[in-house]
User: What shape does this take?
Amino acid sequence: MQVRLVAHKDYIISKIDKRIYGSFLEHLGRAVYEGVYEPKHPDSDENGFRKDVMNLVSDLHMPAVRYPGGNFVSAFNWEDSIGPKENRPTRLDLAWKSKETNEFGLNEFITWCRKVNTEPIYAINLGTRGIDAARNIIEYCNHPSGSYWSDLRIKHGFKEPHNIKMWCLGNEMDGEWQVGHKTAYEYGRLAHEAAKAMRLFDKNIELVACGSSQDTMSTFPEWEREVLDQSYESVDYISMHKYWSNSDKRSDDRELGKHSTTNYLTNSIGLQKYISDVESTINFIKSKKRSKKDVKISFDEYQPWYHSIEFMNEHLNADLKDWPKAHPILEDQYNLLDCLLVGTVLNTFINNSHIVKIACMAQLVNVIPAISTVKNGISWRQSVYYPLYFASLYGRGESLKLKIDSPKYSSDNADDVDFIDASAVINNEEKTLSFFIINRSEKENSELSFDLYNLDIEKIIDQQIINHENIYISNTKDNPNAIIPKNTTIVSYQNNELKADIPPLSYLFVRLKLK
Ligand code: AHR
Assistant: This one.
């Protein structure tokens, strides 16, 4: 299959906000306890933070982490999670039917963020709480001293303010499952008033209003329209969430045509439409209000999520006498197809970097994870870790608008889908150009030729590939390196021609030095 990819130095989409390579840590399952926090683990530091996990997070150059939920946050009292640990109450978490001991709380999260060099994004509870809790937590976190809440923080051992810049105004408030679910009007008003109070404290913070929890919600996109109508001038971002399932996951029949696993890899086409629809809604409200202000998108939850659903439902439907702590739910083990899907999702964020400014892989550890751990044992990278790794390390700079001439195919999700999906990022300071490419074809190699206008290549610095003969293989505790990137030589640069011969169902990362 012949494919042509065209790029031009002057055709820039946008400067990329590095926070599109963020992640998410929720008090859910073993994400916090046995994930980032396990004081008895032999490789934990003086705070009880697992050093092996911190190393894997640091390797990602993680720019931002959203916390503490998720559905969890909608019935969470932030005050439970501060002060001496022995005084913190154990509560029942209604979202995930678990016991929350609050041993790891607000100050531990900030300490952990500083250690892994990431920016905190803190979600407040607009389910059971409201403006009062919002004004108090921001005073606790960000005021230097001389007030009730700031002095309490100092008493708790944190002299310097945390200076949390990014705040989410609740979570998925459109969802019936949410404790304190609201109509779009009710939520839009509350988000506006909470934002107003928080901005009276500090006008420079950045605030995210909840968009829809999926584009399949019956209230989408009317939810966005109403919420933005109520809150446009007081928020900076509207959130988007999306999880994908591969219903053919048990099929190893690669001849199923429309219902083959290739179907799964066209989900990024729907994602593009979802982003464009939200962007249109933002623009509609901006015009309606004759506003000069721009609201952007925080895509603060995305991931494949299907391998562990049955076990989660069993837990949530069980008639439990006692609620467990750190129950191992949502522990998906991701395969090669999931890795390729995440590659196309990250490409979609890069290709929409003019409007998508924040994105958080949901989640970071153990729960629909990038990283998995064994209690008292090892940690390892899931297959979805790797596309995030390449994008985060080498996808900083400006995104280039690409033209791709590729053979196409149709699936249940979309027609005329290019077999080749790609994004490109130029870094003018480092004089580098990076490509992130996925071959969606199940059968054919893609012979890719590059037409790069005004982009003078000096040499190929790096080329790595992720593929496997078994597309359903996962990285597990017994085989943690089943799917790993490998150095390759499939990309060549000779006589001023850049070419790549990309095998079926593979992810390719190429980094070029420019003259
Ligand atoms: O990430 C898991 C859950 O998915 C989050 O708690 C919620 O926001 C979403 O529905």
In short: The pocket of alpha-L-arabinofuranose is lined by residues 26, 69-71, 171-172, 213, 301, 362-363, 368 (CB under 6 Å). Residues 249-259 have pLDDT under 50 and may be disordered. The longest strand covers residues 457-466. DSSP finds ten helices and 26 strands in the chain.
